């Protein structure tokens, strides 16, 4: 089998990602032992916590208020169509009942298979489900985190020093992925995280991993991080992607300025993953939550550039999504119930970004997201004669498409107003003329 994928690969990717690009909005869930120290999911690395220090959280872990049905309801009410949970993050703690390590939720006081419960609950709400799986592992004895640090980016060559041990780790990692793909029913997304330096692609035995994945779950879609690092997106960004380039790009904490396209300008599926405050894992001191207004605008921005938004929540040690996050999700949901038609199934309008906001488009329907208050009529640049009728999406009311008296200098543009002309505060043409 060749490393490089052929054109049928691109066709298959288009097929596989159809639902994903329709659904547009998902929930990311970062949850694990790190919810107890509550200083983010990198706490063990950033603070150089010893194995014993971190073990205390394992001994204590017992999220009695974990009720994934509530999470699923919150996601659905927010208008989210899919969700991705950290089955294992970099700390190596497994939220599922793996046979390959004892370091798992079923061995804690909780005794529960948190992944299975998540999958059952979200599927029951009709949401698509995905699992995040960390390629890094700070707990596995053979993961090459040698030296003074469990910070992998410091030493991306370490894996070469003891190939036999790295092979052990890869067998373990492949084995766990096999478990997740075999024992947990149909999964819609596998979200691997992440490559760095030379530790990418075949260093993970990625062709073998992808062949297993596709044979067990033919329709599953995969992110690009078996190949991508923080600096590079991998070959998904090219016309000649590898078999492990992934089905979608995964820009993190950034919305790509012009979306994601290959060198010929063809759109590439992408999903921006964005935190609600400034942390993925629960961080008690981080109160910097985005407002619902910001989240809605960012979602519109993603869709206006052919992308998805995977919005993160970090449930706490007891298993609850922070109240602040729930409040934002509720408000976003209120907007989505009225305006979701401008998000689901929509993409870029292939028109220049208007001054007052953004466009999204679905077929011959153009959605004008007016994000700035206007003075006078709203300008639809270059669309003179191309607007059949205009409606306010939120309430279905008529928007008045006209060529107002003060727009005669702009013959190529169409204009609309939310109010009928009799509500204008400036003189109407006939009043002026007489
Ligand atoms: C990764 C994780 O480290 C993080 O905890 C979170 O899960 C996020 C969604 O994904 O974040 C990264 C990955 C790569 C880099 C930085 C953050 N990088 O290469 O600089």
Q: Detail the poorly predicted runs.
A: 423-434
Strand content: 5-15%
Order of helices and strands: HHEHHHEHEHHEHEEHEHEEEEEEH
Shape: globular
Order of strands across the biggest sheet?
5-4-3-2-1-7-6
Mean pLDDT: 92
Biggest sheet features: 7 strands, parallel
Helicity level, as a percent range?
Answer: 25-40%
Question: Gap between N and C termini, in Å?
Answer: 80 Å
Q: Which compounds are bound in this model?
A: 4-nitrophenyl 6-deoxy-alpha-L-galactopyranoside
Structural class of the secondary elements? alpha/beta
Q: How many helical elements? A: 12
Cα-based radius of gyration, to the nearest Å: 24 Å
Q: Tell me the number of strands.
A: 13
What report would you give on this structure?
The structure is a single chain. This protein has 434 residues and is α/β, with parallel strands linked by helices. It contains twelve helices and 13 strands. It has helices at 7-16, 18-23, 43-46, 51-60, 68-77, 114-124, 158-161, 163-183, 206-216, 292-304, 323-339, 429-433, and strands spanning 25-29, 82-88, 128-134, 189-193, 221-222, 270-275, 307-313, 357-362, 365-370, 378-380, 390-391, 398-401, 414-417. The strands form three sheets. A seven-stranded parallel sheet has the order 5-4-3-2-1-7-6. The protein has a four-stranded antiparallel sheet with strand order 10-13-12-11, with no helix packed on it. Strands 8-9 form a two-stranded antiparallel sheet. Helix 5 runs parallel beside helix 6 (114-124). The longest helix has 21 residues, at 163-183. Residues 423-434 have low confidence and may be disordered. 4-nitrophenyl 6-deoxy-alpha-L-galactopyranoside (JFZ) binds at residues 41-42, 193-194, 196, 229-230, 252, 273, 280. One of its GO terms (biological process) is fucose metabolic process. It comes from Cohnella thailandensis. Belongs to the glycosyl hydrolase 29 family. This is alpha-L-fucosidase.
């Amino acid at each position: 089998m060749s490393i490089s994928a052929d054109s049928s690969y691109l066709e298959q990717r288009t097929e596989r990602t159809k639902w994903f690009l329709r659904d547009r909005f998902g929930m990311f869930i970062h949850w694990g032992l790190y919810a107890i120290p509550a200083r983010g999911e990198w706490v063990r690395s950033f603070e150089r916590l010893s194995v014993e220090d971190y073990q205390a959280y394992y001994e204590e872990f017992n999220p009695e208020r974990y009720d994934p049905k509530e999470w699923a309801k919150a996601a659905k009410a927010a208008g989210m169509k899919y969700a991705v949970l950290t089955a294992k993050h970099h700390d190596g703690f497994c939220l599922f009942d793996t046979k390959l390590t004892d370091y798992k939720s079923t061995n804690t006081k909780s005794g529960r298979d948190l992944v299975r419960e998540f999958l059952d609950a979200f599927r029951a709400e009709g949401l698509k489900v995905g699992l995040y799986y960390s390629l890094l592992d700070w707990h596995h004895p053979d993961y090459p985190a040698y030296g003074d640090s469990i910070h992998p980016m410091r030493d991306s060559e370490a894996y070469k020093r003891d190939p036999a041990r790295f092979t052990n780790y890869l067998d373990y990692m492949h084995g766990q992925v096999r478990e997740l793909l075999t024992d947990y029913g149909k999964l819609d997304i596998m979200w691997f995280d992440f490559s760095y330096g030379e530790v990418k692609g075949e260093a993970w035995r990625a062709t073998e991993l992808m062949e297993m994945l596709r044979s067990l779950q033919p329709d599953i879609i995969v992110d690009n991080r078996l190949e991508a690092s923080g600096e590079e997106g991998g070959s998904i960004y090219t016309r000649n992607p590898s078999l492990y380039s992934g089905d979608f790009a995964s820009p993190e904490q950034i919305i790509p300025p012009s979306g994601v396209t290959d060198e010929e300008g063809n759109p590439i599926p992408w999903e921006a993953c964005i935190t609600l405050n400034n942390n993925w894992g629960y961080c008690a001191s981080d109160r910097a939550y985005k407002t619902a207004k910001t989240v809605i605008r960012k979602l519109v921005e993603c869709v206006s550039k052919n992308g998805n938004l995977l919005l993160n929540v970090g449930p706490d040690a007891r298993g609850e999504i922070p109240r602040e996050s729930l409040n934002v999700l509720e408000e976003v949901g209120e907007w989505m119930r009225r305006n979701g038609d401008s998000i689901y199934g929509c993409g870029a309008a292939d028109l220049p970004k208007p001054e007052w906001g953004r466009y999204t488009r679905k077929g011959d329907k153009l959605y004008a997201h007016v994000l700035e208050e206007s003075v006078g009529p709203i300008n639809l640049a270059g669309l003179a004669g191309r607007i059949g009728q205009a409606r306010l999406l939120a309430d279905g009311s008529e928007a008045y498409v006209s060529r107002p008296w003060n727009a005669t200098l702009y013959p190529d543009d169409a204009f609309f107003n939310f109010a009928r002309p009799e509500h204008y505060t400036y003189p109407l043409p006939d009043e002026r003329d007489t």
